[in-house]
Each structure stands twice: as C-alpha cells, then as structure tokens.
Design goal:
By secondary structure, the protein is mainly β. It contains 3 helices and 13 strands. A 13-stranded antiparallel β-sheet has the order 6-5-4-3-2-1-13-12-11-10-9-8-7.
Length: 269
C-alpha cells in the first residue's frame, strides 16, 4: 500500500486534502517540463507506476503498522492493522491507544466508511471529506486505504532521468485523468526505475503551489519483497509538522472470510 489535508484537526474536520497509501522528499522544483525532457515508452512508464502501486499489496494481505503524529499542538502514536484484498478493498483498524481502539476505516471500491466505536456508528465518508485528516494525522482517509492508483488514475510524463551508479532515478509528473475526481492537480514522483521503489512524491494544488511531500525510506525485505518500510508526510504550510507510518510486518496471500470487507460486519472485527 503506498501513501489529504492541511491542518491537524479531528477526524471529521476538513483538513489536508494522498497513499497509502503512499511516501517522499523533493525541494521546490519548477513545474514546467524542459524542452529536452527524456522520452519514455508509455508502456514502460505504466509498468514502473504499476510496480509502485503493487509494492505493498497482493491478492490478500495483512500488515501491522505504527503511526506517529507531530503537530504544533500535540504528539501522538497509534498502532494499526491493515487488511487488503487486491486494490479495491481495505480495512484499517486502530489497536492502540485505548481511547481510539476499535476505530476502523473501510474501503469498498470507491466508497469509504469510518466505524466509530464510542458512538457505535458507521459513517460513510462523503466525497468532500475523503481528503480530510485521518485521526488528526497528516494522512487523509484516501491515503490510508489507497483508493487511488498511479498507473490507472493519472496521465504520466517523464521529466528527468539520471544515473546514480547502477540505479536510474526517474522524475515523473502525474496529472489526474479526466473523470477521476482527485484532489490534486499534479503529483511529481521520484522513483527508482529498476526496482520501482518510490523515493518521494510531491503534491500540487490547482494554483501550482506545493501542498505536501511524501517520502519513502528504510527499504527492507517486507513480506518477501524489497520495499520502503517508512512513509512520511510533511505539509508545506506547517513547518515542523509530520506524520510517519512504519510497517512492522507484512504478510501476503493470507486467508480472509468472503464477507470480511463488509460494512455490516465492522463491529465483529
């Protein structure tokens, strides 16, 4: 699973504006594409982007993670479990701290639901709230359950290619395809071409201003694959604030009941 909001505020408050989502570090980079930008075959670009999308996913998977949130007002830590089936269904459950234990976010296709145990209620996340902060973090509801995909939802253009030893780094600009209804007007991805491992991803709004940066680091074997185990989100307008999501473990090809991803069954998880 890879890696949308603007301020650290409660869950149901509109805030930051992804993914798993997602992961990255890019300094201010001009948005224009140079005339001598390198060429890349469309299928080759799609293959690399698909590789990024699939780094943390499989037919059915389970991951244990920690999340640490630092804002100007508070710091907090969460322990999470994420279950996913392909790229259409996912469930995130908070295991700690005790006051938020049992809170869950479920994705079914393009729909997202939050289960709030304190009030014993399941709430469907509206389109306007999909980009809101998830549990006061710098991740959005969309981010946590990976509801958008680089290869399918964006048109890609290779902006720069550079060699670093045996590694080729690609800088790719991504613009949402028509009809995808995504929050961002543009993403700029830096990725290792050979291993399809993301380095950073920078998000821009409709005015062309940078809104946040996601960095991917601590590449280790995770679920039998080499993948970043740490995903950090840093908002552009809140200096010193960030949220870190760390994979503790990841298990692929697990068994899940056919009705595991079901709104009516959230209370039983």
């Amino acid at each position: 699973m890879i890696p949308q909001y603007t301020r650290s505020v409660p869950l149901r408050s509109r805030r930051f504006g992804v993914l798993l989502l997602l992961h990255l570090t890019i300094a201010s980079v001009p948005l224009g594409i140079a005339k001598d930008a390198p060429k890349a075959d469309a299928e080759e670009l799609k293959k690399v982007l698909s590789g990024v999308d699939k780094l943390w996913s499989s037919k059915k998977s389970e991951a244990d993670m920690t999340m640490t949130v630092k804002t100007s007002h508070y710091e907090r830590a969460l322990k999470l479990t994420l279950w996913a089936e392909g790229d259409t269904q996912a469930l995130v459950k908070i295991n700690a701290p005790a006051k938020e234990k049992g809170t869950m976010t479920l994705r079914l296709g393009r729909d997202i639901y939050n289960f709030l145990p304190k009030i014993d209620r399941t709430v469907k996340v509206s389109a306007a709230m999909r980009s809101s902060s998830w549990m006061g973090s710098h991740f959005s509801n969309d981010d946590l359950v990976g509801s958008c995909h680089l290869a399918k939802d964006y048109d890609a253009t290779l902006v720069e290619a550079s060699k670093h030893g045996k590694t080729t780094l690609w800088t790719v600009d991504l613009v949402p395809k028509s009809g995808t209804n995504l929050t961002w007007s543009k993403l700029r991805l830096v990725v290792e071409k050979e291993r399809t491992i993301p380095i950073s991803q920078t998000y821009y709004n409709e005015r062309g201003s940078k809104t946040r940066t996601v960095t991917f680091s601590d590449v280790k074997e995770l679920g039998g694959r080499q993948a970043p185990t740490k995903i950090s989100v840093t908002p552009a307008d809140l200096p010193g604030e960030h949220t870190d999501l760390v994979y503790v473990s990841l298990r692929h090809d697990i068994k899940l009941d056919p009705d595991f991803f079901n709104v009516d069954n959230l209370k039983s998880h």
